[in-house]
Structure formats: C-alpha cells, structure tokens
C-alpha cells in the first residue's frame, strides 16, 4: 500500500470541501448587484473583490483565472496542514532520540536538555512568548528562563531551625578540629592554628578521593569505597562499579554478589538488543563485576602451577599449550563444576602470569582457596577485584566501535588492522595487549582509518592471529596501573586544553598517561580489560559511538540464549546455580501463597492428561529432587538398575509405575519438613543432579550419600511448529509405541478434522498417545520466543539416558503438549 | 541429535563468511542471499526496501527518505555467492522482466576462510584447528529505482 495514501486522502477531502463553499461554484445571484456592505463582508472572507463584481454578470467559471487566484491559497493551506498536523501533537522531549527520552517525570523541565527548556516551559503554559500575558504558575525549582532557582530560606519556625543547625554545625566542626582528622589520626593542638588544620583537612579529603590501585597480594582486598568518598556509606555491602551513576540513571539496578549490577535498561529493549547484536549496531556491557585475580609464577615453578591448574580444570587447561592465549571453561571442585572461568596466560622473560576472571558468585571462595593452596610457595596471587575492570561488546559494529575509541600509543598494531570487520565468528579467539592514550582527547569517536591492506592480506592477518603472539604484561602489574592514573586529567583540565584546539582533538604529549589494556576475543564477544579508574572515561566515549546501546544482566543472558549457549542462570548443576534455583522457588511459592485463593491457580486441581489432575513436581520453580526420585523409581520398575533406595522405608515396595505419585509426593513433603525445621542447609548441600561429562562415557553412576544424583545433559529444544514454552516447563519422552504418530504430527502429515495443524495436541484428541507421568525426563530452565530462529526455543536439562531426537514439552498448569526437536548443547 | 557441519578426513569443517566492513548506510540498501534464503522472502524483502526509496515530506515540509537511505542512492544491491548465485540471478530476472526495473549484473570472486577442527577434541576448538583460504564465485545485482 502507498504509505502516503492516508495523508493524500486528507488533503483531497479538505480541498473538495473548500471548493463547495466557494462562491465561484455557486449559481448566479438573481437579485440586484451586491451593496457596499455585502462586498466588505465578502472581502473579509478572503475572496477577491474583483471576482465578486464580475460573477453576477458573467455567471460562468473561468478556470485559469480561478486557479491563478487560488494558487497561493491552496499552497498555503497544504503547508499549513502538514505543519499543523505535527505541531500540537508532540512535546519537545519527544523530538529527542528514543534512547535519550525520559517519559517519566517529563513535567520536570530540569530533565530536558538545556537548549530545549524554554520550549518545554512554553508547552507547559508556564512561560508564554507574549510578554504581556502573565506567567500562570511555576514548576519544580526552575525560573522562567529555565535555570534552577536558588532555594529560598524558610520562614518562621523553619528558618529558626535552619539557623540553629548552622550554628551547631559550626560549633561541632570547630570542636572536632581541635582533636583529630577524618582518618582518626590525632594531631597536636599546640603549634598549629585553625587555618592549618583546615588546610590539612582539605588536603586529606583530596587524597581520599585520589585514585589509587587497590590491589593486595596474597590476601583479599578490603576497601571502604570505590567511588567518591561522599558515596562511601552507600557501598558498604554492595560496591558500586565505576559506571554506577551512569547506569543508575538509565537502568534498573540489582544488588547481587556484593555488587550493584545493572539488571536491564529502563527502556523496552528485547527486540532491539537481539537486532543490535546480530544485524545493526552493537551492545555494550560493563562487566566489571566479573572479578579477576593474577597469578605470578616464577619460571622454575611452572610445573607446580601447571599441575594445580590441571586439577582445578579437570585436566582441560594445559599451560604449555595455552601460553599467550585465552582459554575459557569450568573450574572444578574434584569432579564437580563450580563455575565459569576465563584464563589468559602471559609469559615474559622472568615469569609466567595468569589472569583468571571469574563469576562474582564463586570469586571470593575461589580466591580464599587459591591463596591457601599457594601459601608456602613462591607463587604469589594478586587480588585484582577492585583494580581491574572490563567492558564487553558484541554485535556487528562492536569492532568498529572499539577501534573508533581506542588510539594506540604505537601505530601499526594488529588490532587496528582488522579494519571494521563486522562478522564476529570469522575472527579467531585471540588476545591483544597494548597501551592506548586517553580516549577523551578527541571531541567525538573517530572512525578508524583504513590500513590499506588488500583483501588477501586481511585474510592472511586472520590466519596469522591463530599463532601465539607476544603479549605484554603491562596490565598485570600494580605499578603500571598506578602509573597510568598519575596524570589522569579531569574534565576541567581537558576542557582548558581543548580551548586551544577548537573542533579538533587535543594532541597527545609525552606527559599524558599511557593506559595498558588487554582486548580478548572470546566467542562472539570482545572483552576489554583495563585499569579500574579508566573504565569510566572509556565507557563515556563508547556510549557516544552511534548505534551502540548498552545492556544489563538480562540482556547478557538473552544473547547467550539466542546463541544457544547456557548462561549463569542455566547452570543449575553448579552449587551456586542450584542454590539460586531453590531461592527462586521458595520466593515464587511465598508470592503465590500471599495471593487470595480465588486469584491464584490451583495447581493441585489442574487437569493435565488422561484424567490426571494436579502438577506433581513443584510448579513454582525447578524441582530437581522430585525429578530425581521420579526417574529413579521409573528405572527401578523397569528393572534396569538395582534398588539403591535405602532412604525409603524397607516395607515400602516399589512394584509398579503406579507407585510413583506417592513417592514423589513423599519426597516433596520431606523437603518441606526439613525447611520447616530450619535444615535447608541439608537440602542445599546434597544436590540431586550432576552434569554428565562432555564425552558421554559412563552414562550412569551412583555416588550415594542420600540418593544417587541424577545425571543430566543440557539440551536445546526448538519447537517443530507452534507453541510457546516458558521456563519450568516439563519435558516428556515420546511414549513407547507412539513415535510414529508424533512423527507424522511433527512433519505436518496428519491434520485435524478441520484440516488444522496438529503439532500442538490437546488431551481430548490424542488421549492414548499422551505421555504418562513416568515419561517425565527433564525440566526447562529458560525458554521463550527466539527472535533468531523465529520460533520458540528453550534450554533445558534431561536425564542423560533418555536423549532422543524428539521430546514432548508441556508448560505448567497446561494440558497442551508441544513436540520439540532436541539438539546437543555445549556447556564449555 | 543433529550435527550441523560436514566432516572431511576426520575433521569438522566450519565455513566462515567473507570479510566485510561494517557500514551503517548499507543496511537498508543491501540484501545478502544465502542458499537457504527462500526466494519469495528475498523478493519481499527487496520490495519493502523499494518502498523506503520514496521521498516523503518531514515535519518541516522538506523531502526525506525513511531509514538510512541516502538521497543520492538510487539502487538496491543484492549479493550472493557459491550455491546462491542462481538464486540471486533469478531474483534479478524477476525484477527485470516481471517488475520492469533496470537491473545490472556483476560477477566477482570472493575469498573466504575454511576452518578444520579435529572431531575428537571439540572442547579445544581453538588449538587444533587450521584456517585455509578459498576463493568462491559470487554475483552482485543492482536494481535501479529510477
């Protein structure tokens, strides 16, 4: 359809209406010629007098004359219609790009950019263009010019309390100054006057705000604050990242793992994030909450370190193979994976250094452990939790964006030669280390200059990146980081320098700091590691690159999900992940109980299949223990495995599959009893599940403590036809003997009576083909509509013995089964 | 269980896309065709792009174009290589004869990278993989708006 059709229809209707009212179209008047008064009246209507005089005599329409006379009017009308259509329809803040708009509190003029404030005030009826019209009212702390008004001193009692408080404060500060300084060092009162003390105080305050590298060797770093001293009390329990204030204005924050972390932007961004990461633009994350530690190993101790690394990574990380490279994988506690790690190893002349970046949920415990393990060795551990920060970038523009804010001190680095490459999978996993200059020297992001490499040379460069390059360990030393802070310019200082070079970037001098950075390419992401106090300047410049948007924790997980990789919240097999599952479950249950009975789903009475009623496993979250027991009982009745259930009463005989329901109910009530008697620790300690080793050998094993853990495999399910699967949906195997029916349904061969697609089948149609309770083999951890595939996909875990090509999935409290395709999921 | 990539001499082959620099202006005027792109989808995508070439008045009454299309740009580029060549040419023919557009055809060759990964050691993908260069034939068509 023509996009301007609507507009042109409006135009035409208005033109026709004006023509109808036009006297030029009317019948000739039969009466006497118009009087002077009548002529005046018609003149006022905007009709030319000449035509009016002629009309009664001629009584005929002269088209060319009419058109010539009306040409200007019609044009004016058309342009007025275009402008009037939009003039009243939008407020000034709506003319900002969507990402800069703040719809909430849009009445607050101070939230609108200064250049637009006057217009905003006019729109609110507070200031008018006409000076004669009085100002109607005022708005929040803003004068008629849009500048903030100084708060008035109160009157009466208020004024009196204020004055008294000032006096008291003066008194108190003098009293304090007699004795000590803010860091509670006592100074002698003799020999120094008040003026000297104030001087000392000011100096100390400046020092406290100074940026020093917060690294401690062989012990965890303890610091009072990371941000300016005035925010110290707010970050006692949960520290702020360098970009906290920037993020707090634009995103919902959450408090986790000792950090204040951006959860997701306040703006709606589900589709936008997906598209930016795949098609246009880039998505940036401040991932400084991922903490790092550096292991410094003398060359003669490499064997010791190598052995240690083999043990903690379950023989997967080999130092000799991975020198000057990055490696990502899992950290193990004996054979159980506890969390993700990214390792970069750098060999220099006198030592080998490892930089380990871990998820904050496991960092503290891991640090404690590694310090203890190397306590007597010459290998030293630097805790860089508060001294190294990182920014992660993904999307086709990510490399271009990085290259436009990074200005290497020495030219011709390999990184800059990868000119603007948009495809993230082509560039192999590599590490670049070099020094760069302050990004704020340029007024805006500068697009990288073309290195003038031929296409063939570019391909050769990519192949050469596979080899082990020489890496610089500048970022890993505390002195170097401190050195880079030394001459860090404030915005004010930079502004003064910029004054001499209007419109161009400030030339770099030898005094300017050289910032050591490390750029790691991992999977489809670029990770930039840099000294903590350089994160903010780089972040500010990065978000000013066009088409770069930021994301929070949720967006990070969304992109992992769309790339079919498991993210932290999917790692239910790690101890912290399992605790998270249990927490979410109890929280959901609490919320459900609080609701009135009539307003909540009665999960015990929901019809599921074949007259079966009620959700057996917990409907509030992932009930792994229920699944474990269910699978166990099923296997026992199938006579596949011996009976390992010492925990169940001996006189309780498992004879048939009909016993499943009471046993699963029993385990959930046992769990509830433990919770009621405050023994949650027991539940959390013995995980009901273990992840199967990647090579799928030895598929079933028991290590009985209370119950044999169920071995599960991560799988990616994608729906064959329609259907939307949500987290905590149940995964069933296709019932024995019914495979053919479900296959024909999945291929679309069999249809319903009215010819509709039968890929989603309800209970009524296929009652005999539906899975039974004992066919339940797994649970979905994350599922929704996948924008990449254009259909529903989900990540889940199923009993590793029961992997098949197709499974049936059912949402909680629903009786609809969806057939889904199974794909293996790599978790490393 | 599906295995997405081919195995040659015990090594899994991962095909990489040709290198192309990121240009934001190109996004609304260029279509890349894969061998698995459905023909009709590609045609519809191009038709939608053509609509955006129309000049419309903005708030101030000046003529502009939607999206990122430059006012001087007057053609849509469609690119494809290897197995997709015939599909791209078919698209060109459709727009030339069915829709009566002016269409130009260009041939080219593109360098790509092939990665061979040892099948057993899937975890250590980066260590034991080789990259090899290969040239692929390609075709580019331009569909002119005016």
UniProtKB/TrEMBL annotation, chain A:
<dbReference type="Pfam" id="PF06978">
    <property type="entry name" value="POP1_N"/>
</dbReference>
<feature type="domain" description="Pop1 N-terminal">
    <location>
        <begin position="67"/>
        <end position="296"/>
    </location>
</feature>
<dbReference type="InterPro" id="IPR009723">
    <property type="entry name" value="Pop1_N"/>
</dbReference>
<dbReference type="InterPro" id="IPR012590">
    <property type="entry name" value="POPLD_dom"/>
</dbReference>
<keyword id="KW-0539">Nucleus</keyword>
<dbReference type="GO" id="GO:0005655">
    <property type="term" value="C:nucleolar ribonuclease P complex"/>
</dbReference>
<dbReference type="InterPro" id="IPR039182">
    <property type="entry name" value="Pop1"/>
</dbReference>
<keyword id="KW-0175">Coiled coil</keyword>
<dbReference type="Pfam" id="PF08170">
    <property type="entry name" value="POPLD"/>
</dbReference>
<dbReference type="GO" id="GO:0000172">
    <property type="term" value="C:ribonuclease MRP complex"/>
</dbReference>
<keyword id="KW-0819">tRNA processing</keyword>
<protein>
    <submittedName>
        <fullName>Ribonuclease P/MRP protein subunit</fullName>
    </submittedName>
</protein>
<feature type="coiled-coil region">
    <location>
        <begin position="191"/>
        <end position="218"/>
    </location>
</feature>
<feature type="domain" description="POPLD">
    <location>
        <begin position="525"/>
        <end position="624"/>
    </location>
</feature>
<dbReference type="GO" id="GO:0001682">
    <property type="term" value="P:tRNA 5'-leader removal"/>
</dbReference>
Automatic annotation (TrEMBL), chain B:
<dbReference type="GO" id="GO:0000171">
    <property type="term" value="F:ribonuclease MRP activity"/>
</dbReference>
<dbReference type="InterPro" id="IPR020241">
    <property type="entry name" value="RNase_P/MRP_Pop7_fungi"/>
</dbReference>
<dbReference type="InterPro" id="IPR014612">
    <property type="entry name" value="Pop7/Rpp20"/>
</dbReference>
<dbReference type="GO" id="GO:0006364">
    <property type="term" value="P:rRNA processing"/>
</dbReference>
<dbReference type="GO" id="GO:0004526">
    <property type="term" value="F:ribonuclease P activity"/>
</dbReference>
<dbReference type="GO" id="GO:0005655">
    <property type="term" value="C:nucleolar ribonuclease P complex"/>
</dbReference>
<dbReference type="GO" id="GO:0034965">
    <property type="term" value="P:intronic box C/D snoRNA processing"/>
</dbReference>
<dbReference type="InterPro" id="IPR036882">
    <property type="entry name" value="Alba-like_dom_sf"/>
</dbReference>
<dbReference type="GO" id="GO:0001682">
    <property type="term" value="P:tRNA 5'-leader removal"/>
</dbReference>
<protein>
    <submittedName>
        <fullName>Ribonuclease P/MRP protein subunit</fullName>
    </submittedName>
</protein>
<keyword id="KW-0539">Nucleus</keyword>
<dbReference type="GO" id="GO:0000172">
    <property type="term" value="C:ribonuclease MRP complex"/>
</dbReference>
<dbReference type="GO" id="GO:0000294">
    <property type="term" value="P:nuclear-transcribed mRNA catabolic process, RNase MRP-dependent"/>
</dbReference>
<dbReference type="GO" id="GO:0003723">
    <property type="term" value="F:RNA binding"/>
</dbReference>
<dbReference type="Pfam" id="PF12328">
    <property type="entry name" value="Rpp20"/>
</dbReference>
<keyword id="KW-0819">tRNA processing</keyword>
